[in-house]
Automatic annotation (TrEMBL):
Gene Ontology biological process: tricarboxylic acid cycle
The protein, known as: Citrate synthase
Pfam families named among the record's database cross-references: Citrate_synt
Gene3D superfamilies noted in UniProt: 2.20.28.60, Citrate Synthase, domain 1, Cytochrome P450-Terp, domain 2
Transferase is among the record's keywords: yes
Record: active site: 273, 330
Xref: NCBIfam families: cit_synth_I, PRK05614.1
Highest taxon above the source species: Bacteria
Listed PROSITE patterns: CITRATE_SYNTHASE
Entry keyword annotation includes Calcium: no
Database matches in SUPFAM superfamilies: Citrate synthase (SSF48256)
Length: 396
């Protein structure tokens, strides 16, 4: 009954009011709580930007310290959770493992996940710290498990990103050698993913949260949404594409020609964006950072050369120009991750660590909105009109 406005994939529908992230796709503008992404990328780090996104203001010294301490306190993963992880074959998708572990968190923290907004909001500071800190530690644990390595426990005295690198790469008999360039690159990578308006996974978090589901349940659903190749999984698809171009001895020319067929299976991965129609400001920052990081680490990656060739060729090609297709954040993020030693199968889980502040801030907006209602879009029905039931024996 009644008229339903049709907007395929909600491309032009504002599903909520939000104070977190401003995105102008026509002009390539991205701001968190009013601060341009370029300034945050230059001056801030992941933890500070996470605080900003979640709480709305940059922290003063005392608040920054308090937030850092809360993150450190919740860095370790409960021993029993190992059983959840180890129930998976080591060949399973790390994103499936991550979402399962996050969806199990309410069982370990029932006081933070009551499914009653008022109660959950009272404990929000703790829940947010548990979510960010543990998603990071879970990713390291999943890496150790899937690669047949012993788990490494977090250290109390290490900053967030260094602690991650320690849990990933230290061995019981040998500490991982800390390089400031590497932790800087990781901070930048996570910061650039910290929030991005109503993307597929964040909208999923809000949708699940709108039913009064707790933060962890909502985030777990968001992580599933992030796993798809058109969203978070694109960073893996980009690297597979670059690797296959390299293996075939192509400089990218043949690939560009195939990408123009309009066939979804031969798309130039890491190009195009549902909202940015001019350029993706994150891609600009990360593209430049790629050069600096690889130079500082003394790495000459042939895949970076291929990526640059592809970018140059596409930016001069009518097909891409007329469709306003530019490199997105995923085009270069994989090359940075590869440079700091993160294997391709873990790329999308890295995106999940980065995006966790965005999920948390968006869930909080849903939970704190006194006028909020459950998300319940309508549809335009195009199926059969009314017809009468036919007994099975009489069916053709
Ligand atoms: N390579 C070749 N052609 C493309 C590409 C591409 N990467 N992206 C879009 N097109 C074409 C598309 O076929 C269509 O052509 P036509 O008008 O002739 O039918 C035209 O460009 C418009 O594209 P669209 O379908 O309106 O774009 P969309 O808004 O539906 O999709 C997208 C956006 C990001 C899913 C898509 O550009 C894509 O698949 N890109 C590759 C995957 C990717 O890099 N995803 C990461 C997104 S950024 C990180 C994140 O948010 O997760």
């Amino acid at each position: 009954s009644g008229y339903v406005a049709y907007d395929q994939g909600y491309g032009n529908t504002g599903s909520c009011e939000s104070e977190i992230t401003y995105l102008d796709g026509e002009h390539g503008v991205l701001r968190h709580r009013g601060y341009p992404i370029e300034q945050l990328a230059t001056h801030s780090d992941f933890v500070e930007t996470a605080y900003l996104i979640i709480y709305g203001e940059l922290p003063n010294v005392a608040k920054r310290k308090e937030f850092g301490l809360r993150l450190r306190k919740h860095a370790a993963i409960e021993t029993q959770m190992q059983k959840i992880l180890e129930g998976f074959p080591t060949s399973a998708s790390p994103m499936a493992m991550l979402s399962a572990m996050v969806s199990a968190l309410p069982a370990y923290y029932p006081d933070l996940a009551t499914n009653d907004f008022e109660k959950d909001l009272k404990n929000f500071d703790r829940a947010a710290a548990v979510a960010i800190s543990k998603v990071r530690s879970m990713v390291a644990m999943i890496y150790r498990y899937t690669h047949g390595l012993p788990y490494v426990f977090p250290k109390q005295d290490l900053p967030f990103c260094d602690n991650f690198l320690h849990m990933m790469f230290s061995e019981p008999y040998q500490e991982y050698e800390r390089l400031p360039e590497v932790s800087k690159a990781l901070n930048l990578l996570l910061l650039l993913h910290a929030d991005h308006e109503q993307n597929c996974s964040t909208s999923t978090v809000r949708m699940v949260g709108s039913s009064a589901a707790n933060l962890f349940a909502s985030m777990s659903a968001g992580i599933c949404a992030l796993s798809g190749p058109l969203h978070g999984g694109a960073n893996v698809a980009v690297m597979q594409m670059l690797q296959s171009i390299h293996d075939e001895g192509d400089d990218g020319t043949r690939f560009i020609a195939a990408a123009k067929s309009g066939n979804k299976s031969t798309r130039l991965m890491g190009f195009g964006h549902a909202v940015y129609r001019n350029f993706d400001p994150r891609a600009k920052i990360i593209g430049e950072a790629c050069d600096t990081v690889l130079k500082r680490l003394g790495i000459d990656d042939p895949l970076l050369h291929i990526a640059k060739n592809l970018e140059q060729a596409a930016l001069q090609d009518d097909y891409f120009i007329s469709r306003k297709l530019y490199p997105n954040v995923d085009f270069y993020s994989g090359i940075i991750m590869r440079a700091i030693g993160i294997p391709m199968d873990m790329f999308t889980t890295m995106f999940a660590i980065g995006r966790s502040p965005g999920y948390i801030a968006n869930w909080k907006e849903v939970a704190s909105n006194p006028k909020g209602r459950i998300y319940r879009p309508r549809q335009v029905y195009v199926g059969a009109t009314e017809r009468n039931y036919v007994p099975i024996a009489e069916r053709p």
